């Protein structure tokens, strides 16, 4: 894979980018992620949220009152029929997510769907049909892979694409922080939750750094850890290994509920000409480029929570304004879905390698093949 010549004096802009015209947003879902991330990000970056609906109307009213959303709809159908809503933000759990995407597309609305896009591989053909319908209607469907706009991860992506480290040799992630509350939450009911939900952000950014390669093998193992409470049903340890036809590899490691207050999530992207090393979360945000005799440490602007959410929304709005596919289009993110499903299948078989069929990690904007077969 050829890479461009890196210009050492060029530092790509890693901040969220929003267009001048910002479509009216209808929010579906009024849970914790909407309260703590979606709406705070939109308020800070001037995203117009014009309506909200939730299966718990009281939560929708409380959210609207807190953030000044002018309209609360009694149900999803009413929100989708609202002419002020041009773009639908799905801040809901994975159950029924594709139903909501299909309904929004049918109503002619652009869609930003929370991750993971899918957890059931049998839904891939249906997703393909929904995206074909979206293309016919001229609407865009994106996935809220907001980690792509975590400042350190975003700048690492842009530098890698700029040729700063040459060809990527390997990607390494370590989750050196406490886990979020899991026991007693709906997440604890999701089989292999770390692999199929929580680590989707790490899998997604890894695929961005391995662009141009074909995945040949995925191995994963998850297990309970010492001290894990009996009522925490899901494993708290997970390790994923990805191998590619280029020889590049990736490793993602969650050791458990790390007992630390000063951790973060360090990462390394090693290339043939240099190394990017950095960290995200818990205030550890940092990125440096180690190339030749020079080490460059970059000043980062913002935080994953909540600027990453503004980045995901801004990219979709920009794509709508510029009549193009967004970088995090559903068709592009399906490769991330397939990585997570392969990791789950490997863990189910005790860590045996899974060999995905024609899983090519194309770059955003490159032609994507049929979702049910070869995918971007």
Order of helices and strands: EHEHEHEHEHEHEHHEEEEEEEHHE
Mean pLDDT: 95
> What strand order characterises the main sheet?
14-13-12-11-7-10-9-8-15
Largest sheet: 9 strands, mixed
Shape: globular
Q: What is the assembly state of the chains in this entry? A: single chain
Using the 3D structure, state the CATH architecture of the domain at 151-303 and 330-360.
Answer: 2-Layer Sandwich
CATH class designation of the domain at 151-303 and 330-360: Alpha Beta
Helix/strand class: alpha/beta
* Residue share in helix: 25-40%
List how many beta strands DSSP finds. Answer: 15
From the N-terminal CA to the C-terminal CA, the straight-line distance is 17 Å
Number of helices: 10
Provide the low-confidence segments as ranges.
Answer: 372-376
Cα-atom Rg, whole angstroms? 20 Å
CATH superfamily of the domain at 151-303 and 330-360: Dihydrodipicolinate Reductase, domain 2
User: What fraction of residues sit in β-strands?
Assistant: 15-25%
Could you say what the CATH topology of the domain at 151-303 and 330-360 is called?
Dihydrodipicolinate Reductase, domain 2
Concise structural overview:
The protein has 376 residues and is an alpha/beta fold. It has helices at 32-45, 57-67, 76-81, 97-106, 124-137, 151-161, 193-198, 200-209, 304-322, 330-348; strands spanning 25-28, 49-53, 71-72, 87-90, 110-113, 141-143, 168-175, 214-223, 237-244, 249-254, 265-271, 275-280, 286-291, 294-297, 359-360. The chain has a domain at 151-303 and 330-360: Dihydrodipicolinate Reductase, domain 2.
């Amino acid at each position: 894979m050829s890479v461009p010549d890196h210009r050492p004096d060029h530092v790509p802009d890693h901040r969220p980018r929003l267009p001048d015209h910002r479509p009216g947003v209808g929010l579906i879902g009024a849970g914790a992620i909407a309260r703590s991330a979606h709406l705070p990000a939109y308020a800070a970056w001037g995203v117009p949220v014009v309506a909200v609906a939730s299966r718990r109307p009281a939560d929708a009213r409380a959210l609207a009152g807190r953030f000044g959303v002018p309209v609360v709809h009694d149900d999803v159908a009413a929100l989708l029929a609202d002419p002020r809503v041009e773009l639908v933000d799905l801040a809901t759990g994975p159950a029924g997510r594709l139903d909501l995407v299909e309904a929004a597309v049918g109503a002619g609305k652009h869609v930003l769907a929370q991750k993971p896009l899918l957890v059931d591989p049998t839904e891939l053909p249906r997703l393909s049909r929904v995206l074909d319908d979206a293309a016919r209607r001229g609407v865009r469907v994106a996935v809220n892979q907001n980690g792509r706009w975590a400042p350190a991860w975003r700048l690492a992506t842009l530098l890698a694409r700029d040729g700063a480290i040459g060809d990527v040799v390997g990607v390494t992630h370590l989750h050196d922080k406490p886990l979020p509350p899991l026991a007693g939450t709906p997440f604890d009911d999701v089989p292999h939750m770390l692999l199929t939900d929580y680590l989707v952000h790490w899998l997604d950014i890894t695929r961005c750094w391995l662009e141009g390669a074909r995945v040949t093998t995925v191995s994963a193992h998850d297990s309970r850890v010492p001290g894990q409470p009996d009522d925490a049903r899901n494993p708290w340890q997970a390790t994923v290994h990805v191998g590619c036809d280029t020889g590049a590899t990736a490793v993602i490691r969650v050791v458990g509920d790390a007992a630390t207050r000063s951790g973060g999530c360090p990462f390394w992207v090693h290339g043939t000409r240099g190394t990017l090393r950095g960290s995200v979360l818990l205030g550890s945000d940092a990125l440096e480029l180690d190339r030749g005799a020079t080490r460059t440490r970059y000043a980062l602007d913002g935080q994953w929570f909540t600027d990453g959410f503004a980045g995901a929304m801004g990219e979709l709005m920009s794509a709508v304004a510029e009549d193009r596919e967004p970088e995090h289009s559903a068709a592009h993110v399906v490769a991330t879905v397939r990585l997570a499903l392969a990791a789950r299948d490997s863990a189910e078989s005790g860590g045996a390698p899974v060999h995905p069929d024609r899983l090519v990690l194309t770059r955003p904007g490159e032609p994507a093949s049929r979702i049910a077969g070869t995918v971007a």
